[in-house]
Amino acid sequence: MPLPGGGTTVVGVVGERNADHLAPYTRVDLRANRDVQLRNSRISFYLEVTNLLNSKNECCIEEFHLEQDRNARVVLVKETSYWLPMLPSFGFQWEF
How many domains would you assign to the chain? Predict the structure, then answer.
């Protein structure tokens, strides 16, 4: 909103509470196990991939700031962070 001296001011407008939402969360995980029986013990191997499809899931709103758009209007911009990308892991367990 323009001021008489030539500057501008920003006037916030409060909307409906909790009206803004993060994008839908999608994730596919995969795990494969293999048990090998030995004479007096057993070894279990696993391979696991978390977020197999490498979905970019929004996690958190890190900060808000104001910017001017092409029409010189001031808009509120939110900076979003994301959950982990595709994450493979493997391991074994030896029981005796």
Answer: 1
pLDDT tier at 80, thresholds 50, 70, 90: very high
- The parent domain of residue 76 ranges over 30-95
Could you tell me if residue 17 is inside a domain? no
Strand (E) positions, the chain? 30-37, 42-50, 58-68, 74-82, 87-95
Least confident of 3-12, 30-39, 75-84: 3-12
CB 30 within 8 Å of CB 49: yes
Per-residue pLDDT of 43-57, as tens digits, reads 999 999 999 999 999
Inter-residue contact 62 to 22 (CB < 8 Å): no
Q: Is this model's pTM higher than 0.70 or not?
A: no
In a domain? residue 58: yes
Residue 25 host element (H or E):
none
Residue 42 lies in a domain: yes
